[in-house]
Amino acid sequence: MQDAHGRMLTAKQQIEELSQQSSLFPSRKDEMVDQAFSLLTNSSIRTVGPELIFGRIFEFIGFGKIDNEMFRHLVISRLAFPLSKLKTIDYLFRYQGVTLDIDAVYRFLDKLNNKLKEQVEQISFARTLQVLQGNMSVVFYDMTTLYFEASDEDDLRKTGFSKDGKHQNPQIFIGLLVGLGGYAIAYDIYEGNTYEGHTLIPFIEKMSEKFKLCKPVVIADAGLLSNENIKALEEKGYEYIIGARVKNESEKIKAQILSHFFSDEATICIKKKDVTRLIVNYSSSRSKKDAYNRKRGLSRLEKQIKAGRLTKSNINNKGYNKYLKLNGEISIEIDYEKYNKDQEWDGLKGYITNTKLTDDQVMENYKNLWHIEKAFRMSKTDLRIRPIYHRLRDRIEAHICISFAAYSIYKELERVLFEEKSSLSLKEASELTHNMYQVTYTLPESKHTKNRLLTMDEKQKELYDIAMKNFRVSQR
Question: Which residues have CB under 8 Å from 175's CB, separation 6+?
Fold first, then answer.
């Protein structure tokens, strides 16, 4: 972000360029420029890029129907400068001339979730439905951990298993539902000690009823796979594609898999029960990756054993700790036989499904699950949804709601940048908005006040033109 001095220099340069275009009274050019420049103040120059780009998409998607300027400011600030609420208020005042009181912001957050979550989700879903041309035959569900900097627990934030390795921090789980391409549908929040496998059925049922989804194919990763979940999905008439942990299958099925000779990209299908089948695919590139990861995990264990950092508590089935065993009463060593035996599973990937789709279609649909992983990655990095500094449940839920709306806008910008074959990345586009300025001035004789965008560089102009072309909005 440029400081006030930098913006004044930018304005002066712009005025000088404008003055050079005039042939009137050439001897008075310097005087005219000085006079014009003397009329400008810090408040004359504003950063308008976030409003020009993200504000336009905000309106285009339909969030403008939420008649609340506070919500608008917080969402756009989350996209342009994902900061704490205090720093967001400082940014809005210094760079956009918007004055917000921190207590008013917190009062708004206390009320936001109950009032706006439903509306935010409906607007996001409507846009997703439009982008996907009504195709809601497939939905993707996953969960992630959001941790907190505060160390104490409450009724929402609980200490539990963290995918981020922040076991000592209170946390919550967020479940996210997206359509093809990662376009947002809905989300929900769970207590930090919730088992993720118990969230799938209630969430899908709730969202199917809310959005009138006609029994879509549910796609989820292996972490949500359990006999209980599969049975519940089948009883409720859902088709599903779920990642399988092939090494956890019955001895009979494992023997059947290992007896098969797999060439690269070969696939076998094993009937489990009724219409349920297990699809197993082999990939040589996946095999190399699996072998590399196992070797790296083994190397890490060997270093820890040599340093004497492992105890009985480390012997479990978490990650590569499964290769540890107890020798006698106190000696921890590596079970190399178990490590070497795992080699026969390298490159194998399993899928459980009850759909009528072909094996190739099942695998292709499951591959789209990376979009939801990308959604979490974007939310955690670009939008900095974590760590969360709020303590109260209402404010935590409000923070997630604002981030969900911001993600929907981010996805829309990503879509048009791709369609326009732009070389701009999402991160670069966001940063370009930081230095889009507008100068406000009053004509000395007519006293008319005018606004003028300062000349943009080539990339800023590209982003601006893409936004103007693709996000046409009606004036409110």
Answer: 141, 142, 143, 187, 188, 189, 190, 196, 199, 203
CA–CA distances in Å: residue 276 to residues 9, 235, 354: 69, 13, 4
Whether residue 444 is preceded by a cis peptide bond, meaning omega within 30 degrees of 0, is no
Write out the two tokens for 112.
């936001």
Query: What are the residue ranges of helices labelled H in 212-356?
Result: 227-235, 251-258, 284-306, 336-341
Residues 43-77: b if buried by 16+ CB within 10 A, e if exposed: ebbbbbbbbbbbbbbbbbbbbeebeeeebbbbbbb
The string of pLDDT tens digits covering residues 399-457 is: 888 889 998 999 999 999 999 999 999 889 999 999 898 888 877 777 788 888 989 99
pLDDT for residue 17: 62
User: How is residue 449 annotated by DSSP?
Assistant: E
Per residue in 237-265, pLDDT tens? 899 999 998 998 999 999 999 999 999 99
| CA dist., res. 212 & res. 233, Å (int) | 17
Nearest to 338 by CA among 294, 400, 389: 294
pLDDT, position 386: 46
Could you say which residues of the chain have pLDDT below 70? 1-29, 32-33, 35-43, 113-114, 146-170, 192-197, 225, 328-329, 376-392, 475-476
Per the CB < 8 A criterion, the answer to whether 176 and 143 are in contact is yes
End-to-end, the C-alpha distance of the chain in Å comes to 30
* Farthest CA pair distance, the chain: 98
352 strand-pairing partners? 242, 278
Give how far Cα 18 sits from Cα of 32, 313, 454, 457, Å: 11, 73, 11, 16
Contacts of 167 (CB under 8 A, 6+ apart): 159, 161
Query: CA-to-CA distance for 140 and 176, rounded, in angstroms?
Result: 8
* Cα torsion 31, 36, 42, 47: sign: negative
Q: What is the DSSP letter of 52?
A: I
HEC letters along 112-171: HHHHHHHHHHHHHHHHHHHHCCCCCCEEEEEEEEEEECCCCCCCCCECCCCCCCCCCCCE
Which phi and psi (to 5°) does residue 97 adopt?
70, 20
The conformation of residue 388, written as its DSSP 8-state character, comes to B
CA–CA separation, 98 vs 90, rounded Å? 9
AA letter at 472: R
Could you give the angle at the alpha carbon of 337 between the alpha carbons of 325 and 292, nearest 5°? 100
* Contact predicate 172/157, CB 8 Å: yes
Name the phi and psi angles at 271, rounded to 5. Answer: -75, 130
Length of the chain: 476
